[in-house]
């Protein structure tokens, strides 16, 4: 037993649309609910209006679920029965259900909707918008023309006839309706150009060119010499080569253009950093293409990144630097003696001293890193250690007392320190004599009396201060200069990583000793920098699912030389020795596109 449900609808032009579906079941539900077997979307029909059953002998029975009922062959009823072979018509609201059956086939239920009378249509037609507006086809063409004029013709015309001026943040754009072409909000770096599209889009239907970017970013430097970039770039995959071939057809520059890395209209906020793949295209296996490079191959921080290389002072008293992998455990000769282990050990004498003076100086029961290392303004790094502020609480430089005032040595200037100590000996001294007066005019009280004794006390004090066990020798390395006692010059670096940066503020939830093994360092020659394995406890490559912090290359490195600098205040750009200026900008957009 089954039903064949046939629904007949009509288009606006009167064309008939017939849809058939067969239900292999003996009961059907009729109602306005979407889950009904016969769905009748009419407010005159209840959600669950009636239930229809087919028996073995071909008779059909219909029972209304509610009180509204239905019409059977023109008679109002709530229940009925009939022979499907003889046919019948049921009415539910505006819908008509005609039942027929041929031989032993399924019961055919034809559903149609009664047409509204012409009189009713004429009575209400005057109030419809269709009576006052053009036809739908005409309106569609009119609106299409309006869209073309407003959003295409007007922007193009005003763009071509605008005044050609350099980009200006303080001046609104001259192109009308160009904002309708925007694909999204600009980043914070370019938010001032929201109403000045032509500042970047200098030519209609042409992607942003490198020379347009350099109009504002004229001081930016290329990553490397253009010839070395061409040589260092690795071969493309077939997929990448195809993508760039299509992009080239539409005039897009690259790879290596500004827009390859810096994509705009991605939403408000900071511009998204370059993807790891952008850097790996050159730095993965680069030593096989640039055989003279000193850089290690890098493609993924978690799996393919060289050990960190530190820049330090290898020779005592010299400001010359060397660069060495941390795996080789480099030792620095900066001219100071400062064992971290002694200062941080809570059982040491230093800790007991810190506990004694802690109430006045703000120390705890033992010294901690923050007692000497003060964060800089943005807390990304630390200010240089200052003797007077960070050390003198324990390492006093007092050498004399005048009444209630203590005189201290001038730290950092050996010549001034020696002059201060000599000044202590300016007062006249009585010579050691027997008490008998010498005859002649040079006797005491004579006209030309003078004490010719050697002022040895000040020189002895200077020698002691600059000795290995003296007040200066506690922290400095003694030496001699032109036969006189002196100290080795001190060379302390503020940053040891040449081509990257590290933001301490972003890691303030960690203890210092998580990365820096200061508690066990017994000599100041140790470089207390973490090796890459420590960083990999949290940081892995950009696509590493198991990483606590997925890290792309741009998290620690910058592409342009001028901005490859530590975030510590007061330091020069890293990678630019002395005051050397960055290389002149060079358009490097159209690099070779070689399929792999």
From TrEMBL:
- Kindly give the InterPro entries that the UniProt entry links to this protein: Cyt_c7-like, FHA_dom, Multihaem_cyt_sf, Multiheme_Cytochr_ET, SMAD_FHA_dom_sf, Tetrahaem_cytochrome
Q: Does the keyword NAD apply?
A: no
Cofactor(s) essential for the protein: heme c
UniProt-listed PROSITE patterns: FHA_DOMAIN (PS50006)
Q: Where in the cell does this protein reside?
A: Cell envelope
Q: Which Pfam families match?
A: Cytochrom_c3_2, Cytochrome_C7
Tell me the ranges covered by the FHA domain, including all copies.
Answer: 28-77
Return the GO cellular component terms, semicolon-separated.
cell envelope
Q: Which CDD domains match?
A: Cytochrom_C3, FHA
Q: Does the keyword Signal apply?
A: yes
Looking up PANTHER family in the UniProt record yields: CYTOCHROME C-TYPE PROTEIN NRFB, DISSIMILATORY SULFITE REDUCTASE SIRA
Q: What is this protein called?
A: FHA domain-containing protein
Annotated source species: Pontixanthobacter aquaemixtae
